[in-house]
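Model it.
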Amino acid sequence: MTKEKGKYVIVRADRAGVFAGTLETREGAETTLTDARRLFYWKGAASLSQLAVDGTSAPKECKFPVAVPRVVLLGTIEILDVTEKARKSIEEVPVWKA
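Modeled.
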């Protein structure tokens, strides 16, 4: 377990892409998130760092699919803490469906 459990984070994983969700566990390069959305495409933030701090200024142009109850990500490269402002912004992005 990790002391960051329960924090809302953005995780960039080596072949799985980028996810935002609640940190359940992190063991080495394996990270488990709950209520996680894949951040397939974002606009309105120059980088993941800005997305984690400010959120998106263009929520209708982002492509964030439906949240999954739980995802285990292998090959975690980066974990960013997300501010409340940014979390609200990410959660308000409409669910992208094909």
